[in-house]
């Protein structure tokens, strides 16, 4: 039997929010809109069992990564981790980093929570909130080692493209949060969006593209089932990697 999260997570209010925007505030950049969701039993149990260890609630003040993770490892923020398969594997195999994953899709959020909790991955924390608000309110400037944005929604129709995540305001915000030498790593199977990403990042003065175009694949990024389907249909996978200059 399925349960509505609105009736069970009374002690975890951030899992119930469907909109994260102050009344009357603009919608200039927004990473997503939260949607209601129904969860399977194991997903409910994962939230109940692991949220207070691995979940990070939103707060309108800057956080200390050292306090959050209990160490001084560099921090990678992933925006929109989907079902979390890549996040889990990268965090497990590249344990010299800490990972903060932000995702609104409750089913994916709870599945990754289940995997992280069962494996005891101490270098992962998860949030279900608007990533733009998180960056603005919680993340110190110059504190992030890298950003991962893998297969964001391409919003392919012309009238929808203003909803795309990778736009100049967010690119500037991510650059502001990056350490010198930090990176932004984006991957998409929508070629036109990939070219837009290159153009967007070229407009941010602090960011440089060491490849002068698309980047070669990183061996440590696993191929997901979603990506495999795209490859089977001969969809090109384009990777974009930019770095914050030391100027």
Automatic annotation (TrEMBL):
Keyword set, alphabetical order: Methyltransferase, S-adenosyl-L-methionine, Transferase, tRNA processing
Enzyme nomenclature, EC number: 2.1.1.33
Stored Pfam families: Methyltransf_4 (PF02390)
Keyword Transport found: no
Recorded metabolic or biological pathway in which this protein acts: tRNA modification; N(7)-methylguanine-tRNA biosynthesis
GO cellular component assignments: tRNA methyltransferase complex
Binding site for S-adenosyl-L-methionine: 78, 103, 130, 153
Binding positions for substrate per the UniProt entry: 157, 189, 224-227
Top-rank EC class of the record's enzyme: transferase
Catalysed reaction, written as an equation: guanosine(46) in tRNA + S-adenosyl-L-methionine = N(7)-methylguanosine(46) in tRNA + S-adenosyl-L-homocysteine
A molecular function (GO) term: tRNA (guanine(46)-N7)-methyltransferase activity
InterPro entries: SAM-dependent_MTases_sf (IPR029063), tRNA_(Gua-N-7)_MeTrfase_Trmb (IPR003358), tRNA_methyltr_TrmB_bact (IPR055361)
Gene3D superfamilies noted in UniProt: Vaccinia Virus protein VP39
Physiological role: Catalyzes the formation of N(7)-methylguanine at position 46 (m7G46) in tRNA.
Similarity comment text for this entry: Belongs to the class I-like SAM-binding methyltransferase superfamily. TrmB family.
Name of the protein: tRNA (guanine-N(7)-)-methyltransferase
Gene label: trmB
